[in-house]
Amino acid sequence: MKNFETLLIHGGLSIDETTGAVNVPIYQTSTFKQDALGKTRGYEYSRTGNPTREALEKLIAELENGKYGFAFASGLAAITTVLSLFKSGDNIVISDNVYGGTYRLLNQVFNNFGITFSVVENGDYEKTITENKNTKAVLVESPANPLLSITDLKKVSEIAHKHGILSIVDNTFMTPYLQRPLELGADIVIHSATKYLGGHCDIVAGLVIVRDEELAEKIAFLQNSIGAILEPFDSFLLIRGIKTLAVRMDRIAENAQAVAEFLDKNDAVKKVYYPGLKTAQGHDIHSKQAKNGGGMISFELKENYDIEKFFSSLKLVMLAESLGGVESLVCHPASMTHASIPYNVRQELGITDGLIRLSVGIEKEEDIIEDLSQAIGKAAK
Question: Is 246-378 CATH 3.90.1150.10?
Answer without folding.
Answer: yes
